[in-house]
Design brief:
about 625 residues; 22 helices; eight-stranded mixed beta barrel; five-stranded antiparallel β-sheet
């Protein structure tokens, strides 16, 4: 039509003006010339119209080719799209479906074309669902949502569907286009992520996040002024690490699964169980009416968990548990900070139960919070104290029972905090052991004692030996014999002036390395003593293997010497054992003259204790050396 219209306009213009143009150009020419001009005019018209028509046709063909190419591209995109595309006529019968639709439904295209859309319903949605769907399409032109569809094998899957209405020139629906995406795997992945966010995959129990929600809801739903409370229990399997390492992680995981099931069997309706990780479970008891109710459940749990577990046909293990319990009243405004506080309090109670000997339960008290805060303050202050030169050594003299002479001293670390004053070693030494700071502390003690010993020798004083306590962590970390040798060399002191005190438990913690390590320490020339002898795993076999110089009788046995029917037999046995093995025997904690007399009668070699001298600063001990103090 465009070409015809252009040709029509060009022809009319030529007819109207061509003759006038020829007459004007050839007005004075002969008739023959005018006749030839008319002929030439016709040829010019034919040539111009042909050129114009050719150009117009060429332009149309180019546009047609471009449109065809674009339509081919669109068709290819639709045919190869992973998204299903389906078109239906005004009567909602399928007139087109791309291969993705066939793949999703596992059916051939010829079984889809020509069929009404209503035949593809899975039955998972009622009639009202589709009625509202189409109503929205007719009113707004589009609908989006999730639809459960069926495959040819009868299985159901999830689709995300977008329905769009295509109108004709009269704004009446002429087609409906549906875009369909299979979201089954995506939905499953989301469900999996949600599951991992709120559940423990090993035991299938709620995790910390989910239990936090449960506890918060329980606090909000429990009356503030009512007689009910919320109880939170932390349950920890004692010595689980040993079982895990002995039998392998697979059986360790099995133990956690079985333990979780056994705990569930003890719970009442409404109680909830979760796992925080490791071997720690948490129980929530909402709306309890009294502490006795909680104690009864805790007792049932201890009995159930202590009954032993069969992990496979060949493995049966015995497990005990410790339980920490915290009680709280309802709180309508409870938030996650309140929940975190409850968890912290239950955890403190759990630590108390473990300190009480395990296989028991303990309730939280305010004192535990104060102790926990004190522990954090101490831990931070310990680190600062090491860098701030806040530690010093006290020395407790050691006397010969036979001659009464001062023959040495035990170096004892003291912490002089700028704000707290002297901090008890009973408070900071266990913390240093737990945190590993004991390694740095112990290293400082050895270097400082060696330096002080060198100073006394340079002053012409004879302090005898200086005993140093060494923890198992110092022995395990690094190479302690090498460190000892370096300290002795740098201080320039005779190595036999140092006496290294080791506990029985620290020696046993070394396992097969004990004999080799003790031999290396003896090679430095230092003396070796077993501290607190008799309180650990005393064994004649290891005394024969471990070459030491001295046994130190623990103060608990010495204290019993003053009691009727006390520990004289044990002390006598230790002294006799030392004499038989040619070991020196030293008594600790001597506070009474009667104790000293008994020790002398039994043949003990030396002693230390408040009877003659308490631990004292280095300057005071130096004065005592200068005065030549003895027990005579």
């Amino acid at each position: 039509m465009r070409i015809a219209l252009i040709y029509l306009v060009l022809g009319c213009l030529w007819i109207l003006f061509a003759d006038q143009l020829v007459a004007w150009l050839f007005a004075d020419a002969s008739n023959e010339v005018q006749s030839k001009a008319q002929t030439f005019k016709g040829w010019v018209f034919v040539l111009l119209s042909a050129a114009l028509i050719g150009w117009l046709v060429h332009q149309s063909i180019q546009k047609l080719n471009h449109a065809t190419s674009f339509m081919t591209l669109q068709s290819s995109m639709i045919e190869n799209a992973h998204t299903g595309i389906l078109a239906a006529d005004a009567n909602r019968r399928v007139i087109y479906a791309n291969p993705a639709i066939a793949r999703m439904n596992n059916v051939r295209l010829d079984r889809i074309l020509g069929r009404p859309l209503s035949e593809f319903r899975s039955g998972a949605h009622d009639e009202r669902f589709f009625s509202e769907l189409w109503q929205q399409v007719e009113e707004t032109g589009q609908w989006q949502g999730e639809v459960v569809a069926w495959r040819r094998d009868g299985s159901l899957y999830n689709q995300w569907v977008t329905v769009t209405r295509v109108n004709d020139s009269k704004q009446q629906a002429s087609y409906y286009v549906l875009f369909v995406t299979d979201v089954t795997e995506e939905k499953a992945d989301k469900e999996r992520l949600r599951y991992l966010a709120f559940y423990d995959p090993l035991t299938d129990l709620p995790n910390r996040a989910m239990m936090s929600d449960h506890v918060r809801n329980a606090l909000r739903q429990t009356s503030v002024n009512g007689g009910s409370q919320v109880a939170v229990m932390f349950i920890d399997l004692d010595d689980f690490k040993t079982i895990n390492e002995s039998y392998g992680h697979q059986l360790g995981d099995r133990l956690l699964q079985v333990a979780g099931q056994r705990i569930l069997q003890c719970l009442s309706d409404g109680d909830q169980l979760g796992r925080f990780g490791g071997d720690e479970f948490v129980v929530l008891m909402p709306r309890i009416t009294g502490q006795q109710q909680v104690e009864q459940l805790a007792t049932r749990l201890l009995d159930a968990l202590g009954a032993g577990f069969r992990l496979d046909d060949h493995t049966r293990v015995m497990v005990r548990a410790s339980i920490g319990i915290c009680l709280a009243r309802g709180d309508r405004s409870s938030d996650y900070q309140n929940v975190s506080l409850l968890f912290s309090q239950a955890d403190s109670a759990l630590s108390e139960a473990k300190l009480a000997g395990k296989n028991t339960f303990a309730f939280y008290s305010a004192d535990m919070t104060r102790m926990a805060r004190r522990r954090l303050e101490l831990e931070e202050a310990l680190t600062t104290g090491l860098a701030g030169d806040q530690f010093e050594l006290f020395y407790q003299p050691v006397y010969s029972i036979g001659s009464g002479e001062l023959i040495g001293a035990e170096a004892l670390i003291r912490w002089r905090h700028p704000d707290w004053g002297l901090v008890s070693p009973a408070e900071f030494i266990p913390l240093a052991e737990e945190t590993g700071l004991i390694v740095e502390l112990g290293g400082w003690v050895l270097e400082e004692a060696a330096r002080q010993l060198r100073q006394w020798l340079d002053q012409g004083l004879d302090p005898g030996f200086v005993a140093i306590n060494v923890s198992s962590r110092q022995l395990v970390r690094g190479h302690f014999p090498g460190f000892l040798k370096r300290v002795v060399k740098e201080a320039g002191i005779p190595a036999n002036r140092l006496e290294i005190e080791l506990t029985e438990s620290s020696l046993l913690a070394l396992g097969d390395r004990t004999t080799e390590l003790l031999a290396e320490m003896r090679d430095t020339g230092a003396r070796l003593a077993i501290d607190d002898f008799g309180t650990g795993y005393s064994s004649l076999s290891y005394l024969r293997r471990f070459k030491v110089d001295k046994l130190k009788i623990d103060r608990s046995f010495v204290n019993e010497l003053a009691m009727e029917g006390g520990g004289e037999g044990i002390v006598k046995a230790v002294v006799r054992l030392g004499q038989a093995m040619e070991l020196e025997v030293q008594a600790e904690g001597v506070e009474l003259e009667s104790q000293l007399i008994t020790l002398a009668e039994l043949g003990c070699d030396s002693f230390q204790g408040f009877l003659r001298a308490a631990p004292m600063p280095a300057d005071e001990f130096r004065k005592r050396l200068g005065e030549g103090h003895s027990v005579a």
